Automatic annotation (TrEMBL):
Subcellular location: Cytoplasm
Annotated gene: alaS
Keywords on record: Aminoacyl-tRNA synthetase, ATP-binding, Coiled coil, Cytoplasm, Ligase, Metal-binding, Nucleotide-binding, Protein biosynthesis, RNA-binding, tRNA-binding, Zinc
GO MF assignments: alanine-tRNA ligase activity; aminoacyl-tRNA deacylase activity; ATP binding; tRNA binding; zinc ion binding
Name listed for the protein in its UniProt record: Alanine--tRNA ligase
UniProt lineage: Bacteria, Pseudomonadati, Bacteroidota, Flavobacteriia, Flavobacteriales
Reactions accelerated catalytically: tRNA(Ala) + L-alanine + ATP = L-alanyl-tRNA(Ala) + AMP + diphosphate
Species name: Flavobacterium panici
Domain notes: Consists of three domains; the N-terminal catalytic domain, the editing domain and the C-terminal C-Ala domain. The editing domain removes incorrectly charged amino acids, while the C-Ala domain, along with tRNA(Ala), serves as a bridge to cooperatively bring together the editing and aminoacylation centers thus stimulating deacylation of misacylated tRNAs.
Amino acid sequence: MKSQDVRKQFLDFFKSNGHLIVPSAPIVLKDDPTLMFNNSGMAQFKEFFLGNGTPKSPRIADTQKCLRVSGKHNDLEDVGFDTYHHTMFEMLGNWSFGDYFKKEAINWAWQLLTEVYKIPKENLYVSVFEGSKEDNVPFDQEAWDIWKTLIDEDRIILGNKKDNFWEMGDQGPCGPCSEIHVDLRPEAEKALVTGKSLVNNDHPQVVEIWNNVFMEFNRKADGSLEKLPAQHVDTGMGFERLCMALQGKTSNYDTDVFTPLIEKVEQITGLKYTSDEVKNISEEQNKTNIAIRVIVDHVRAVAFAIADGQLPSNTGAGYVIRRILRRAIRYGFTFLNTKEPFINKLVEVLANQMEEFFPEIKSQQQLVTNVIREEEASFLRTLDQGLQLLENVVTETTGKEVSGAKVFELYDTFGFPKDLTALILKEKGFSYNEAEFEVELQKQKTRSRAASEVSTEDWNVLIPGNVETFVGYDKIENEVKIT
Ligand code: ATP
Ligand code: MG
Ligand code: MG
Ligand code: MG
């Protein structure tokens, strides 16, 4: 099944069950001081759970552009190294705002996966909240009893607070959840290990695809829970992971969500990507594969952010986007031998692929391409020199820790974000002195504060009508530590 059809069938299924289909909110959040980017489907609805405002319909479904690169949910370090965590991904979701609850949510999830998508039941595991003494929340007997009517009991796994009690943040709506995991291992392996040890244990081929959250509590500032006035459902299913399961693959990058982008990289670089099915590859091919995965992942994050109005910049959310792009540029430079801008050429492929559901890239293709090309050109001007400096620093370093002042010089003069330098150092078995870096950064801040008190704005409204009121990043930049 093609990815376009996977998405469509999800939305059609929930539409036929009385849900209003709404568009994705922008990937960049402009009015939430606690969050820079949309990192889950529910972010745009959270006020409704708290009882502030009324949704257009008590049942809603959509696909939400998500970005998990900062704050509570930060998957950046895994991207490229595993085959199912992305920076930018789509989260398919259905919601009940005080309408249906566990029975309908679980039955629909099961019906969609096993009858519409036809995933064999024996490839699925589900998890149920085991309860928490600390919070005085009991074992989720209700969810267990509903699942019991659908799946063998030995496939229902109990999960703890970390995996099976979903919280928006330190405060706010929360509740027990039930996850659905799909076992993509070859048949011969399946009999070897079953049950709990597979689920939530990072087995690369037993992957969490869907989380169904039953919102019934509010976490108060003092840490205690109170019952919400109504019970809600909030679900999130990873679109690319679902496509992997339905297309019989063991890597998201082997689905048609990513193959057109990968083919374009192959065409530009003359290198080959090997699918997850090819085993025993050389160390060099492994590095090529990681670099290609990073690049085709990161270009999506950057292109969607720019199309939603967030240009790369030196502060706040703009700097997060710049860091992601520079990371991709350096992976290309070092491992794919790309010395000229090329990531911008992937935008056309992405724009065509996404056009039907997310026309914002196609409609601003030229702008997105130009911005990325300029960023590439400017970073490539200093990248080689910076890498050489870093090489010298490493050679001169006795021990395994590089001076923070040197890392600052790379940041300040060569535009190397510190996490990028850290990544390169890690590849060589080194780390750096972060405290020294911070001292240098503070010194520079004091200097530039003296020069100017005004911070420049990096938000641009590119699609009038597709964005809500923006209150400015100044507040966020001062409050959110960018890591
Ligand atoms: P994981 O345990 O795999 O990191 P999660 O529990 O953090 O996932 P949730 O917050 O429950 O994920 O999000 C709902 C769904 O979104 C997940 O079940 C998964 O399918 C998908 N998802 C989460 N993070 C990513 C990511 N970084 N890339 C792609 N899909 C993701
Ligand atoms: Mg996670
Ligand atoms: Mg999880
Ligand atoms: Mg989860």
